[in-house]
Specification:
Elements lengths: L18 H19 L4 E6 L5 E5 L1 H7 L3 H4 L14 H13 L3 E8 L5 E12 L5 E10 L7 H8 L4 H11 L4 H8 L3 H15 L4 H10 L3
Helix pairs in contact: 6-8, 6-9, 7-8
Length: 219
């Protein structure tokens, strides 16, 4: 089973950006897709410009949801909702998407076979180099009961040096390396160095997992 499926959209259905903007957008898209490939967390990438349609999922998502990637590409994550899905939690996610900000909720979702499960959902915005909201990263995790353990998440973040913590905070807000560098007065190379160091210090494999911890902690 392939690791990822990627949606191919009809260019005639969207406004054609300049060649330079299109190539940067495509590079960002491919970077995000690569970033979720080996994550142990069920992760998706959605297109913020195209009604937040799913454009890529990883193997962990297929295992969690029971859906093949080809069955969900082009659809919205609302497909996992059902009769017992909390409207208030859905509203939190919808408002976060509209505002282009991260969010973390726990709610009931449904697998393809109709089985419900408690799902800890995190979404994080991804902005392009021009500061335009381009994509969302979303992760799902099966949990039992309440999952937002602020104390545990904050304890993990407490081990980060202040500069790494600031970099992670900006990452959780969807900022790109260049934006983080400008805001914190660092070079892009230094930002990348901090990103790699904080991922290692937190004991996770990807930036997405680090962002999840930050959002769980309410950073």
């Amino acid at each position: 089973m392939p690791c990822l499926y990627v949606q191919v959209t009809d260019p005639s259905e969207q406004m054609a950006p300049s060649t330079g903007s299109a190539s940067r957008h495509e590079r960002l898209r491919e970077e995000l897709i690569r970033s979720i490939r080996h994550s142990p967390l069920a992760t998706i990438v959605t297109d913020a410009i195209a009604a937040n349609a799913i454009i890529a999922v990883n193997d962990a998502f297929e295992r969690l949801s029971g859906y093949e990637a080809s069955e969900v590409i082009g659809r919205n994550c609302r497909m996992l909702s059902g009769a017992e899905t909390c409207p208030a939690s859905r509203a939190i996610l919808r408002q976060a998407v509209d505002a282009g900000r991260p969010a973390f909720v726990t709610l009931v979702n449904y697998r393809k076979d109709g089985q419900p499960f408690q799902n800890a959902v995190m979404i994080a915005p991804v902005y392009d180099d021009n500061g335009i909201l381009a994509f969302f990263l979303g992760t799902q995790l099966i949990v039992d009961g309440e999952t937002r353990n602020l104390a545990k998440a904050n304890a993990r973040l407490a081990d980060l040096p202040p500069q790494q913590l600031r970099v992670l905070e900006e990452m959780a807000r969807g900022r790109r390396h260049a934006e983080i560098a400008k805001k914190l007065g660092l070079s892009i190379k230094t930002v990348k160095m901090h990103r790699g160091a904080l991922v290692k210090r937190l004991g996770v494999q990807t930036s997405t997992e680090a962002i999840r911890i930050a959002i769980e902690a309410g950073l």
